[in-house]
User: Fold this.
Amino acid sequence: MSEPKKLYIKTYGCQMNVYDTARMKDVLAPLGYRAADTPADADLVVLNTCHIREKAAEKVYSDLGRLRAHSRAKAEAGGRMVVAVAGCVAQAEGEALKRRAPLVDIVLGPQTYHRLPEMVARSLRQSGVVLDTEFPAEAKFDFLPPPGADGPSAFLAIQEGCDRFCTYCVVPYTRGAEYARPAAQVIAEAKGLVAEGARELMLLGQNVNAWTGEAPGGGTWSFGRLLRELAEIEGVSRLRYTTSHPTSVTPELIAAHRDIPALVPFLSLPLQSGADRVLKAMNRGHTVAEYLATFDALRAARPELRLSSDFIVGFPGETEAEFQATLDAVGKVGFVQSFAFKFSARPGTPAALLPNRVAPEIVDDRLARLQAALADSQSRFNHACVGTVAPVLFDRVGRYEGQLIGRTPTMQAVHAEISAAAMGTVRAVRIVGVGPNSLSGVAETSDQERDAAE
Ligand code: SAH
Ligand code: SF4
Ligand code: F3S
Assistant:
């Protein structure tokens, strides 16, 4: 193999992009590319972009502007920096990107990562831009090398694309139609990750609970069935999945939450708005009452289950009363961790053409009020946890000597003084305090007690 080459990848957007970035590193490693923390002196720079809101998309262009100096410095030193734009902006803007940013050598959509080595080689051989943003018939997953686990918690993409076409959203256009990876492939990847030390699997998909896939012996499995099979894998302590759509929470999935202890009692289930008219205009396919009924059914199956959500404020035509309905829904559900966004009109989406845009100062005001309500809801939950004992999966070293940081099933960060042997394991921790960004806890059992119990 030749000299190691320096690769810098910047990741924007969702967890699927984080997963894809790791896969790009995997496919480039055999060519001698090693990941670096800065773009300075890089041989290959990949921007793995997000198109979900205008701000996210525009960031790519400002980052490309900043890269120019690095590229020039590299050229002056006799080298060459290859710049690739990957991900959802690449998919959405392909041709336009080339015109706006001459620095870019390669434009590749989310479905063609497995061809990256070939594209890099081609771009080094020839000048001019290499563009690859098709949705190829071959599934990229068949061509990617097996991923390595990067700690106790690992991402596993099981589904990609979205057929739901919410009127504001670009994902169906950037990620294409829903594709479910066959169960055998998912299980093999899960086993590989566990063999490398993963204890928690975070199953990823843009519409993850819509997964229905090819069963190993033929026929199909539901998502609930897949969860059951993954939970059976020796060494899997925790299963999570994100992001779910409320209309795909089936009775079978609810039963999975009742029956599978490894399945965390926590679900990211975006509500977006608390007003039925807005939900309809968004094409979400359910009412607020239906959402609340789904929450009730999940809680009946697993009483400790909590939800997080995404919200959009200032959707065209949103009235004060409709916004108030969103605040009411927050009060009813008591979301434990959520994100609120200002509506962003994305080119090509139906909502971008809707009349009655909400004035920016009103949108700002609603965003602030919603964020305050969500912070309050989260804080209430955190305080209610004080005194309880939670299973914490420790996955990071803390700021102080002897301290580790982990997560509860409900995604709260917990720091505790505990022996280094707890790293990568789930320990019972009594929550004793609430800080601004994390909880503090005290381990319930020492290593000796634990060894004796096992
Ligand atoms: N697949 C996920 C969401 C993916 S995008 C789902 O269906 O829930 C993540 C979040 O970004 C969405 O939940 C939504 O709240 C927000 N979002 C998407 N498009 C947006 C837009 N045009 N303007 C503002 N927020 C948007
Ligand atoms: Fe976008 Fe809606 Fe699909 Fe989520 S379900 S990715 S918001 S179209
Ligand atoms: Fe962004 Fe694409 Fe994910 S638009 S949120 S990176 S699917």
Q: What stands out?
A: Residues 162, 164-166, 169, 171-172, 206-207, 245 surround iron/sulfur cluster (ligand 2) (CB under 6 Å).
